[in-house]
Here is the input.
Amino acid sequence: MLSHSTSVTIVGFGAFGRMIAAHLALHCAVSVYDRGLPPGQTPAQVRFLTGPQEICGDIVILAVPVQAVAECLREIAPHLRAGQMVVDVCSIKEEPARLMQAMLPEGVEILATHPMFGPASGRMGVAGLQIVLCPLQGKGWRRLAVFLRRGLKLDVIVTTPEEHDRQAAMSQGLIHLLAHAVQTWGERPTIRTKSYDLFAEALAMVRDDAPEVFEAITQRNSHVATLREHLLQTMGPRPLAPLE
Here is the structure.
């Protein structure tokens, strides 16, 4: 379990970084480094760091888009020490896992993770929601897993980056593709079934995700392209006529 003596540094303080800070600040010391964030923009219980040289958390969480992971690692890697654990929270796992293993210094523990929720789906609390852990280097992840299960009441799934991306192509990539497509169809019909409403509700949960999230999930996950082609094939032998 984590304790108030455990220190966590969150690199990146966007919507998800703020969500992480709000949950973790109740259990341990939290600091934030975001070079685009002016001082004074963090909550009172969160310490603001002015540069990567100040990163000293036992756990360092990269709360940045996958497109920014390489740049982030280049900036912070020279300031990390053996024994620290670096954790990413990107929506795909193979690419950030490869980057962390290649760019982090020797002795740093590495854990790739994917919370299967965001500020919208977790706004009423995260208890019972899934988080995927992909241990890459070190054993400290087990202690963190206990905290996630017992402290935050999350449903912890341990797997590999490859297996995560394969399954997420279906459970997340497909949903984002459908949400993007349906968004172009116009207003919701007045005449509709309950199943349509449930479908629309599910799509609405991801409809307003940032463009970089959509790009990462649908284009940087290598398993999505095959799934998309299979979907098109199963829809029929002939292309559908355009909607008017």
